[in-house]
Write a structure and sequence with these properties.
The chain is mostly beta strands. Helices cover 0% and strands 59% of the residues.
Length: 118
């Protein structure tokens, strides 16, 4: 079995945490046996607060730039960058410049507990 979708047909759902954050569920846990694939977009001037997840994240930056904090390290992430965020490690995002920051985010299909730090 395979699945084919058009990304523009998937609803961008506003996220409660942060400012200007939207998520498209590209492949849900019901559709894919091992990983969920999401597309997050943070509008210019937006941010996602410092938080932890109980599952790891694999990310590929599609567009834009953001100041990303992972644990005690802060750096600029940009289109083409690949990030691995281990389970339980705090992370946050703050857009830079006038372009939205957009990235693919894959997570294992297991229960995820999110804890906001600030």
């Amino acid at each position: 079995m395979y699945l084919r979708k058009e990304i523009n047909s998937i609803e961008a759902v506003p996220q409660k945490s942060g400012k200007g954050v939207f998520m498209k569920m590209l492949l849900s846990p019901d559709e894919s046996p091992n990983f969920a694939m999401r597309n997050f977009t943070i509008e210019a001037g937006g941010h996602m607060p410092l938080h932890t997840n109980s599952v790891e994240h694999e990310q590929y930056v599609l567009s834009g730039r953001a100041l990303v904090q992972i644990g005690d390290e802060t750096f600029e992430a940009k289109a083409g960058d690949i990030l691995l965020i281990p389970a339980g490690l705090s992370h946050s995002y703050k857009t830079l410049g006038s372009e939205a920051y957009s990235f693919l985010c894959l997570v294992p299909n297991s229960e995820d507990s999110v804890v906001l730090i600030k």
